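Researcher: Please translate sequence to structure tokens.
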Amino acid sequence: MRRVLAVLTTMIVMTGASEASQIERACLKSDRAYGKRQLCRCIQNAADLTLTAKDQKLAASFFSDPHRAQEIRQSNSRRHERFWDRYESFGRTAETFCRG
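Model: Translation complete:
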């Protein structure tokens, strides 16, 4: 039983780790980051404070597909409207915390 519990715990931790830092990874891959690891980490910290994991996954997609952000912002979906409110809060937080 302990062995099964240990395996399950390891799987849960590894899954969480693979989902973490989505924004930071997307930022580092973007052509706008120019290798600014510290800035991308700061942006990730702001995301951790303001966005859910699901929100972060969607927001991270904007780095590779900026047009997707425009589609979400202009969407008539209530879910997208609520996301966009949180995303704007994230942007304000990142701007405040990460000014260089």
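Researcher: Any highlights?
Model: Residues 1-18 have pLDDT under 50 and may be disordered.
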